[in-house]
Design brief:
alpha+beta, 10 strands, 16 helices, three-stranded antiparallel beta sheet, five-stranded antiparallel beta sheet, single chain, 56% helix, 12% strand, Transferase(Phosphotransferase), domain 1
Length: 458
């Protein structure tokens, strides 16, 4: 017998009824309970983070929770979990954010141990991009750690979440001077000392996170949080290559530079760190799966349109000719049935084209809903073109000429079967018509693929 639903789940279900269908609890921490839900209007999965009702009565906790939502909501980046809305209803305080199907970086490390160098580099680089963007918006995360980095199951994209203790430039409600915030194992020396921080503090925490992912252990351990904070302030971290000799030296040096005690000795920005990793390391080069799917569907759409369009043009041409050379008597009746049959083929081509477009647009919509943009899809399309064999301009002209010749031949053959076929068995004429249809269908797809291929100017 399954346990009864948690009271928080029941209360949230009642508060969002008609808008979201709350399915189950995903996890809970000190400042929130996260539930999986479905957005009924948009038919998509979302995550809803609820401030526990027991904490919602605290003005400070409530303000901090709302501040987290509003801080994250002002950030729009493919590597930051998006916030859709923040609400207060029936005494409940919650916000709705994108649902990332996957696991935290911390969960992956616990499951697999130290990670491959290319994966460490990819995660470090993507988080650096996200932090660089946040820093440009005046937001310092202050709690970068493995549990606050989500890894998408499909594509492996790293996404930063939980801006609960972020510092926002110009925010009067920030942490008082001298107060230490953050997770002891991952805070920077300036955080440990209760000093003001900037974006380089987040890069230190990212270095701690990468150290754990690469070596399987934290750079500093202690019997208490105070002991760990003291090590951040005074002790150098163990050499990365001493714990992981097979790690590429540039990656090890990037991690160690992030872990420098003085902010001035670290990378100046997330962009500089990402550029350093991209210039010297074999980062995972695979295009994220949603973007790759959208690019593939768009590429195949163009090829298929060439085939479907050729058949549709064949139907139109044959109908025009039949109007100028009509038959009489029983032949006219046969032409009428043949015309209806061939128009049906044309409608079939239009339907197939429509289905292909719907499939392509769904793939694009899925990529956009996951936080990618049209520029990402365009880059993937260009990457696909780079992998295709270049075609010379002369070969493209030859492809167009070849298509015209094949199309003209198929048109004459269709017209011939339309006239001579009156003397054939009906089944034989249908088979002949379908066989001829495949000629422009195949030629159109072949020509479209050649004409849309990258040009070889040599």
């Amino acid at each position: 017998m399954s346990p009864p639903p948690a009271p928080e789940l029941l209360a949230l279900q009642e508060a969002v009824a008609g808008r979201y269908a709350v399915e189950r609890e995903l996890g809970r921490g000190g400042m929130g309970i996260v539930f999986l839900a479905r957005d009924i209007a948009l038919d998509r999965l979302v995550a809803i983070k609820l401030l526990p009702p027991a904490l919602a009565t605290s003005t400070d906790r409530r303000a901090r929770f709302l501040r987290e939502a509003r801080t994250a909501a002002r950030l729009s980046h493919p590597n930051i979990v998006p916030i859709h809305s923040v609400e207060e209803s029936d005494g409940l305080v919650f916000f709705v954010m994108g649902y990332i199907a996957g696991e935290t970086l911390g969960g992956r490390i616990r499951r697999l141990g130290r990670l491959p160098a290319a994966e460490v580099s990819a995660v470090m680089r993507e988080v650096a991009w996200a932090l660089a963007y946040a820093h440009r918006q005046g937001v310092v995360h202050r709690d970068v750690k493995p549990e606050n980095i989500l890894l998408e199951r499909e594509g492996g994209r790293a996404m930063v979440t939980d801006f609960g203790i972020a510092h926002v430039a110009g925010d009067a409600a920030d942490t008082p001077a001298g107060q230490v915030v953050g997770t002891a194992r991952a805070v920077s020396p300036e955080q440990a000392a209760g000093e003001p921080v900037d974006g380089r503090s987040d890069l230190y925490s990212l270095g701690v996170t990468a150290f754990l992912a690469a070596t399987g252990q934290w750079p500093f351990e202690g019997e208490s949080a105070a002991a760990v904070l003291a090590q951040h302030l005074t002790q150098p971290p163990p050499p990365v290559l001493g714990l992981r000799p097979d790690l590429p030296a540039p990656l090890a040096h990037a991690i160690e530079r992030c872990l420098a005690k003085s902010p001035a000795d670290r990378f100046a920005s997330g962009e500089e760190l990402a550029a350093s990793l991209g210039a010297t390391l074999p980062v995972l080069a695979a295009t994220p799966a949603p973007v790759a799917r959208a690019a593939r569907e768009l590429h195949e759409l163009g090829t298929d349109m060439g085939g479907y369009g050729s058949v549709l043009l064949l139907v139109i041409m044959s109908e025009v000719v039949l109007q100028y050379f009509p038959s009489s008597g029983w032949g006219a009746i046969g032409d009428a049935f043949l015309s209806l049959y061939r128009i049906g083929i044309g409608i079939g081509m239009v339907s197939l084209a429509g289905m292909r477009k719907v499939t392509a647009f769904r793939a694009i919509r899925d990529a956009i809903q996951r936080g990618y943009g049209f520029e990402d899809i365009r880059a993937a399309l260009l990457g696909t073109n780079e992998e295709r064999e270049p075609v010379t301009p002369r070969a493209k002209v030859a492809a167009a000429t070849g298509w015209l010749a094949v199309f003209a031949t198929a048109t004459l053959a269709w017209l011939w079967t339309g006239k001579v076929g009156d003397n054939w068995n009906g089944v034989i004429q249908v088979i002949a018509d379908l066989a001829i249809v495949f000629i422009p269908l195949s030629a159109g797809r072949w020509a479209a693929a050649r004409l849309t291929a990258p040009s070889d100017r040599h």
